[in-house]
Design goal:
428 residues; alpha/beta; globular; eight-stranded parallel barrel
Length: 428
């Protein structure tokens, strides 16, 4: 098997005596205890990723808000809440999750293009820090809801700067053809409108251009365009307390080399300083870069199936557990949990799951030395895997384990068929 010497989750996901470990726990032992498929996360990897942002903002008035859509498991949220993070949410359900995990509601930012009136009321009652609003219609509805609730809603307006993030089109959010944000040339007028409404308090400006960005140049371009708007908005008499630059920093899936978070922010802060905005309150909303390479999905080889055109390695994880390959044609490294075999030549396999869809694949043309019963690890599985998991084919969602040093804690048990049927009823 072609196993890279340095895995994406290093140093906390690495081989010891030939067996893949997450921190101090061998994945083979965790698979025996909890079964497969199984998600395992490194707590220390998450904290190290967060520390890079904190180093980048040292000496600045800044808040890191974890974008929980990347991985919303309560055990993961608790790690970031205890580390002092704020949270970026996009639904009322996500708000309930961060509060259950112990978040300070004043450090919660509510993003998303389709907030309902009920979600607005829920967020106002909780006392969240700010709404990132994305359309003029939403501004008007939020004003109505706030007035009806006897509240004033703090808002920032999300700007669409029409900047190409150079990423997959499904996760690009800052181009004028995307559904997100308000057009750059409409911003000043919309800020003036929002500032005139009695139920709203304008406090900031927001921009998020996409996800899995591996180049600093789109951030720099978006920053300049946002700062141009800040100058125009404040010239019109509206003060902006904070600047929110979103998230989107990529991770290493297959030799990707995104800038380190601290290095990226040193570049961006130099631009902010040069334009006189370096002392402003700053907010960032990273998700994938805080959890992506912290996670592994362990799966068992069920069968190998040779064919004339393709050889298939059929595993017990599937597109309901790991949706990214089917949805984005995304690449995840797949390696053996135990030391690679030496008694056979590697074979090129498509690694596929049991679901009745040709789109149910985890990896294409992977050189593997495997047989039934072997364990494989799908790497970089901490983001947008469990959060997007489903019950397709009436499959239960996998358990999750959080590892901290030598200690492993089950943070989600395996879903049962009784769990799935609990909310359903037969019609009379």
């Amino acid at each position: 098997m072609n196993t890279p010497a340095r895995l994406p989750g290093h140093p906390h996901i690495a081989r010891k005596d030939g067996v893949l470990h997450v921190e101090g726990q061998p994945l083979s032992a965790l698979a025996r205890e909890y079964g497969t498929p199984l998600f395992v996360y490194s707590r220390q990897w998450m904290l190290d990723a967060l520390a890079a942002y904190q180093r980048g903002f040292e000496g600045r008035d800044a808040m890191v808000c974890y974008a929980i859509k990347a991985n919303s498991s309560l055990g993961v949220l608790r790690v970031f809440a205890e580390a002092g993070c704020g949270f970026d949410i996009v639904s009322g359900g996500e708000l309930a999750r961060v509060l259950a995990a112990g978040a300070n509601p004043a450090k919660v930012i509510f993003s998303g293009v389709g907030k309902t009136r009920g979600e607005m009321r829920q967020a106002l009652a909780a006392g969240i820090g700010c709404f990132n609003v994305e359309s003029e219609a939403e501004i008007d509805v939020l004003n109505e809801v706030a007035l009806a609730e006897g509240c004033i809603a703090s808002i920032s307006v999300r700007i669409n700067p029409n900047v190409d993030p150079k990423t997959h089109p499904y996760i690009s959010t800052g181009l004028k053809g995307n559904k997100f944000g308000i057009a750059h040339d409409r911003a000043v007028a919309i800020y003036q409108h929002a500032a005139s409404l009695k139920g709203l308090k304008v406090v900031g400006i927001d921009c998020h251009i996409g996800s899995q960005i591996t180049d600093a140049s789109p951030y720099l371009e978006a920053l300049e365009r946002v700062l141009d708007l800040v100058e125009a908005i404040e010239k019109s008499g509206i003060a902006l307390h904070h600047l929110d630059f979103g998230g989107g920093l990529g991770i290493d899936y297959n030799g990707d080399t995104p800038p380190a978070a601290d290095a990226l922010w040193h570049q961006l802060l130099a631009r902010l300083d040069a334009r006189g905005f370096g002392r402003r309150r700053l907010i960032v909303e990273p998700g994938r870069s805080l959890v992506g390479n912290a996670g592994v999905c362990v799966t068992e080889v069920l069968y190998t199936k040779p064919g004339e055109d393709k050889n298939f390695c059929i595993v017990d994880a599937a597109m309901n557990d790991l949706p990214r390959p089917a949805m984005y044609q995304a690449f995840h490294q797949i390696v053996a949990v135990s030391a690679e075999r030496t008694d056979a030549h590697a074979v090129a396999y498509d690694v596929v799951g049991p679901i009745c869809e040709s789109g149910d694949w985890i990896g294409r043309d992977r050189a593997l030395k495997v047989q039934s019963g072997d364990l494989l690890a799908v790497l970089s599985a901490g983001a947008y895997c469990m959060a997007m998991a489903s019950n397709y084919n009436t499959r239960g969602r996998a358990p999750e384990v959080l590892v901290s040093g030598e200690r492993a804690a089950l943070i989600r048990r395996r879903e049962t068929i009784d769990d799935q049927l609990l909310s359903e009823r037969l019609a009379d």
